[in-house]
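[Discussion] Sanity-checking designs against the backbone

I'm trying to build intuition for which residues belong where. Below is a C-alpha cell string of 495 positions. I'd appreciate it if someone posts a full sequence so I can compare it with mine line by line.
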C-alpha cells in the first residue's frame, strides 16, 4: 500500500494580510485556511508563535511556552465586548507589505490594556481552568514580564539582586503590589490560546494540519532562563558560561552568533528530561506536527565563549543524543516530528536522525553545485523526508536563482530540462514542480514562491540585524485563481 503523499505551504502568521499592522488570528487567517483547502493543500507550516524580543525574531522569545500577544485579533475582542468598534478602529493601519514592529510595540499593549480593563476573570468561561492547567509556566512568565516592564524592559541580569535571584520575600512583595500587571499577562495568554485553538480547530476541520516550529534553544532574556537557571550553563551571577551559534559556513564567514544559553544536559538527564517532555507536550497542544530547529544540536552543539564578538572560536561538545527522544517517546508516545537536519552533517548526526525515524529536510536551493553530486538533488531523496524550495532563512526562489553563479545556473537549468526561464513566475514554478515531483512524503512551499516574488519578499537573512521578519502578503494576493493552479499541480503529482 502506497504511503499518502502530502503538500503544504510555509507562511508565518505575522505575514498574513490584515488591518492591524501584523497578521492576527482573525478573519484573514480563516480566509487563508479556506484558500489552502481550495488549493488542495494538507499542511500549513508556520514560524514559532512565541512573544518576540529585541530584533523581532520568532526564534528569540521571552518564553518557549507563551504566545505572541500581537496575534490576538482586535475584532474578536470587539465581538466579546472587551473593545468598542471605535477603539479597535483607532489602531487600524494600512498594509504596506512590511510589519512595523516599533509601532506595534508602542500601541498594541495600550489597546490590549483597554480590553483587560473590561475583563472579569470570575465571569470568563474557562479562564480559571486555563490558569490551573498552565500554572507553572504561566505564573513564571506573567511574573517575569511584569517585573521586566517595571525595569523598563531590561533583561533580568539588570534587575535588583533580590528579584534577579528569586528572593522569596522580594518576589512576594512584588506580587502583592503588582497583582494587576501580572494578571494582565495571564489574560493575554488566555486570549492568545483561545483564539489560536479556535483557528487550529477550523484548519483541522478543513483538512489542514498545522506544522509548528520550535527553536532548539530559548532566549537568554526569557522567563525560561530566569525561572530555571539549573537548566542552563550559567555562572553564579546568572550569566552564560558559553552561548549557542554555528561555525563559519555558506551563510556567514564568521559564523552565526545566536547568543542563546546552552543547556546543562547532565542536569536534564538527571531529571529524565522532564522539562523537554513538558515542552513537547505543550507543542502538541498547539500543533499537529512539530519541526525541531537545529536538530544536529542534540548530537553535538557548538559552544562559543560568552562575550566573543563572533562565532569563529567555538568548540563542538557532545549533546544528549537519542536518550532525550527515548524519554519523550516513553512519556508521550510516537509523535509526528520533523528534524531540521540542514548544514554540514556528521555520520553521528545522520545516525541519530535515522534512529529517531523523523523525516529530515531537503532544500532545493542547496542542490546545484556542478562540482559534486548533492544529497539535496531530488534523485537522491528518500521517501521519509520533507522537501522545500527554500525556508525562512533562504532568499525566495526567484531572488536565489537570479543571484546564482553562471555554472550553478547552467546546472539548474540542465537538471530542469530547460534552456531558460522566462520570468519570475516561470522561475519559481519550475522549482515548485521539481519539488512536487520528488519522492519526499511531504512537500512544503513558501508562499512567496507560489506568488513568484523576488528578494523583496525574503523573510530572514541569517547573521544580519534589521529588515528581517517584516514581509507581509498583500490583500488579495492569494486569489481563487492561484488556488486553482496550486490545486491542479498538487493533483498532478498525487499530493
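Best answer:
Here's mine. Compare freely.
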Amino acid at each position: 500500500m502506497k504511503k499518502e503523499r502530502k503538500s503544504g505551504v510555509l507562511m508565518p502568521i505575522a505575514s498574513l494580510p490584515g488591518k492591524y499592522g501584523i497578521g492576527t488570528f482573525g478573519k484573514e487567517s480563516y480566509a487563508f485556511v479556506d484558500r489552502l483547502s481550495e488549493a488542495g493543500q494538507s499542511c500549513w507550516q508556520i514560524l514559532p508563535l512565541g512573544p518576540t524580543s529585541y530584533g523581532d525574531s520568532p526564534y528569540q522569545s521571552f518564553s518557549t511556552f507563551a504566545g505572541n500577544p500581537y496575534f490576538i485579533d482586535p475584532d474578536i475582542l470587539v465581538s466579546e465586548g472587551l473593545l468598542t468598534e471605535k477603539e479597535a478602529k483607532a489602531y487600524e493601519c494600512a498594509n504596506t507589505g512590511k510589519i512595523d514592529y516599533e509601532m506595534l510595540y508602542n500601541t498594541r499593549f495600550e489597546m490590549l490594556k483597554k480590553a483587560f480593563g473590561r475583563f472579569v476573570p470570575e465571569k470568563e468561561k474557562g479562564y480559571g481552568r486555563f490558569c490551573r492547567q498552565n500554572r507553572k509556566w504561566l505564573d513564571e512568565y506573567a511574573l517575569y514580564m511584569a517585573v521586566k516592564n517595571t525595569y523598563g524592559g531590561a533583561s533580568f541580569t539588570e534587575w535588583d539582586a533580590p528579584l534577579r535571584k528569586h528572593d522569596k520575600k522580594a518576589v512576594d512583595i512584588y506580587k502583592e503590589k503588582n497583582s494587576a500587571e501580572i494578571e494582565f499577562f495571564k489574560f493575554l495568554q488566555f486570549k492568545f490560546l483561545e483564539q489560536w485553538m479556535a483557528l487550529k480547530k477550523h484548519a483541522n476541520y478543513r483538512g489542514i494540519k498545522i506544522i509548528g516550529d520550535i527553536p532548539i534553544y530559548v532566549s537568554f532574556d526569557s522567563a525560561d532562563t530566569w525561572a530555571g537557571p539549573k537548566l542552563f550553563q550559567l555562572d553564579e551571577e546568572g550569566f552564560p558560561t558559553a552561548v549557542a551559534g554555528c561555525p563559519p559556513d555558506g551563510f556567514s564567514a564568521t559564523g552565526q552568533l545566536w547568543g542563546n544559553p546552552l543547556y546543562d544536559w547532565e542536569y536534564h538527564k538527571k531529571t529524565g528530561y522532564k522539562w523537554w517532555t513538558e515542552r513537547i507536550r505543550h507543542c502538541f497542544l498547539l500543533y499537529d506536527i512539530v519541526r525541531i530547529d537545529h536538530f544536529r544540536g542534540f548530537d553535538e552543539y557548538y559552544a562559543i565563549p560568552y562575550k566573543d564578538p563572533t562565532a569563529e572560536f567555538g568548540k563542538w561538545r557532545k549533546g544528549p543524543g537519542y536518550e532525550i527522544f527515548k524519554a519523550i517517546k516513553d512519556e508521550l508516545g510516537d509523535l509526528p516530528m520533523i528534524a531540521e537536519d540542514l548544514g554540514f552533517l556528521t555520520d553521528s548526526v545522520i545516525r541519530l536522525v535515522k534512529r529517531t525515524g523523523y523525516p529530515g529536510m531537503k532544500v532545493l536551493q542547496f542542490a546545484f553545485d556542478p562540482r559534486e553530486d548533492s544529497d539535496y538533488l531530488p534523485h537522491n531523496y528518500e521517501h521519509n523526508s520533507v522537501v522545500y524550495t527554500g525556508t525562512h532563512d533562504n532568499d525566495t526562489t526567484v531572488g536565489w536563482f537570479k543571484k546564482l553563479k553562471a555554472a550553478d545556473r547552467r546546472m539548474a537549468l540542465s537538471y530542469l530540462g530547460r534552456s531558460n526561464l522566462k520570468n519570475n513566475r516561470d522561475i519559481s514554478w519550475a522549482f515548485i514542480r521539481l519539488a512536487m515531483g520528488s519522492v519526499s512524503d511531504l512537500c512544503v512551499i513558501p508562499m512567496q514562491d507560489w506568488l513568484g516574488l523576488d528578494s523583496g519578499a525574503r523573510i530572514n537573512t541569517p547573521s544580519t540585524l534589521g529588515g528581517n521578519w517584516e514581509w507581509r502578503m498583500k490583500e488579495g494576493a492569494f486569489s481563487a485563481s492561484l488556488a486553482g493552479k496550486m490545486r491542479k499541480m498538487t493533483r498532478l503529482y498525487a499530493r
